Amino acid sequence: MERGGAMKLNHGLCRLFADYPSRDLIANDGSEKRLLEQGIMLSIARSGRNQAWTVSPYAALTGAARDELAKLPRFQAALLGLFMMPLALLLRWGGAHRVAGIQNFGLSTHLYSDGLTRRSPADLRRLAIAAAPNDTPMLRSLNAAHHADWLDKLAADGWLLLVSRQIYLVDDQRQALRRRDNRRDLKLLDDGRYRFRRLDGESADADFQTALAAYNALYLGKYSAGNMQFTTLFLKETVSRGLMDLYLMERVSGGVAAGCAGMIVENGILTTPVLGYDLRLPQSEALYRRLSVFIARYCAERGLRQHLSSGAPLFKKTRGAVPALEYTAVYVRHLPLRRRAVWYLLGRLSNGLYRNILEKYGL
Question: What phi and psi, each to the nearest 5 degrees, are found at residue 94?
Answer without folding.
Answer: -90, 5
